[in-house]
Structure prediction request, 399 residues.
Amino acid sequence: MSIFDKFEPVAKVRRQIAATGVDPLGIPIDDIISATEAVVRGKRTILAGSNNYLGLTFDPDCVQAGADALHRQGTGTTGSRMANGSYAGHLALEAELADFYGVSQAIVFSTGYQANLGMLAALAGPRDVVMLDADCHASIYDGVKLGGAQTLRFRHSDPADLDKRLRRLGERAVDTLVVIEGIYSMLGDQAPVAAICDVAHAHGALVYLDEAHSLGVCGATGSGVAEQEGVLDRVDFVVGTFSKSLGAAGGFCASRHDQLDMVRYASRPYIFTASPVPSVIASTRAALARLRATPALRDRLWHNAHRLHAGLTAAGLRLGSAPGPVVAAMFDTPEQALTFWQGLLDNGIYVNLMLPPATPNGWCLVRCSLSAAHSDAQIDHMIAVFAALGGEATAAAVG
Prediction:
């Protein structure tokens, strides 16, 4: 027996992928040209799998804010906020996030993954219940596991199933945290947040909403699906990331409950992790200000989403959801998806390849994420290549 034996199932899958001659896990990005283009293997390539929804990674104000902070405050904090103290930027960003969501409290974490890990581990302990949507992100599952709460799942985006399962808990429902996402990252579908709030609160449960892929995308001010459905004031905890629409790295939780501040003293991932570096905090603050001041970015993102979705639908691709920032084409086998993904890359388009068990219902996905920075010409090129590859795949299947 070896400590490495546990990796054999992973190694087997890795060998199977390598045997196809396609290596989706080892693609070198030689240079970044802009928010939507890079040099990949020496070739100019459209980036259509970056989650850079508002295209702010090269925004001049964000870049300058980060550079200024780097020169003023150095490259890092070299410790946690509990040990080394909070920089003024940390506190300012938390105040700005709380204001953005119209709540009293916000906490900033070093990554979006850590936000879920730190919040759920602190909120839900062994005496509590977490009722989570079956399609929730791995960081949510890991946070619940770390906290030790009893974990139950309800069918994806199914308020009726949630109601049935909460009813079975009886009095324990009031010790339950219902966990959902605004937009689910694999297929890009939106949760029925209002209906889930109705069910959860009818049983006395609290609602925890991850808006990682809907921040900057949905709602009148861009705060997410809860705002879009008019129930932001009924969500107990909103969690998100800076690594999508805000073009940086980090995460947060905002809440209307004043007790949120106690999480700082109970969350091990918060207490024992180095705090976000000043340059990232500064660029994130600039990006949040840009998001709030420029709704045209959101409009442009949705224009691109509808354009791509309509084009791929017309080309006969099976898509995972209605138009949105994530557009996922579905395939029956890994071989089909791998071949299609490689064809896109050969034609200068980089997207995400998603295979089971990471995907819902065993689907094999070629996943695009749109950006406000994509041009109509780039979207049209993507449609044309998808259509051509789809035609080749159909011809090969018939032959």
Summary: The two ends are 48 Å apart (CA to CA). The first strand starts at residue 29 and ends at 32. Residues 394-399 have pLDDT under 50 and may be disordered.
